[in-house]
Amino acid sequence: MKTFRSALFVALLSSVSAFSPSLHTPSAAHVGRRNVALNVAIDTSDIKNGLTVEIDGEPHKVLSFSIMKQARGAAKTTIKFKNLMRGSTIENTYRSGEKFETAMVEKKAAQYTYSDEGGNFYFMDSESFEEVMVEAKLMEDVAKWVAEGMECSLVVFKEKVIEVQVPGTFVYEIVETEPSLKGNTANGHTKPATLNSGAVITIPGFIEQGTKIKVDTGKGEYLERA
Q: How far is CA 185 from CA 171, 204, 208, in A?
């Protein structure tokens, strides 16, 4: 009798399990394939240069900020933003602790291929190998640093490219500069030089045309010979 009850209990458990909903855990294959920044609630204490927040449904990048302490009351933070969809800048002042929401953006690796007569730039998506066109107005700040074959990051918001980011440092070739004068070694003499991307920077006087150099693209400064 006891054996019959045990068998019946096992059978009932099996029947319940067959109709119970199963839990599904996403695998690594479905998560984290792309570099995506999700919406996160932050306040003025989290603000930093380069951060992208969403204001009135549009992405705004922090260009600069300053904190003004007051004798009475909470400190105030003045923030300068660039609207990445319109290209315009705004400056607002916020009370300490005011809330923001980071923009949900995606970064895609892409290789620069060419530009057209209208100033539009074309990239090849490193994952899908599809061609992506970026309008000239979005390239105003970085166009002079983009060199042939350069690996860049395309920042995408709601399936639209809103910004192109170039590497922080990159090796360029000097395509034009004045000849070095005798005696100008490392004595502090400098001169302008045009890079193969079109940017013009200041280099030490002893460096010759045709030399490859490493450049800080954020500061626009010569670092060293490559």
A: 22, 8, 11
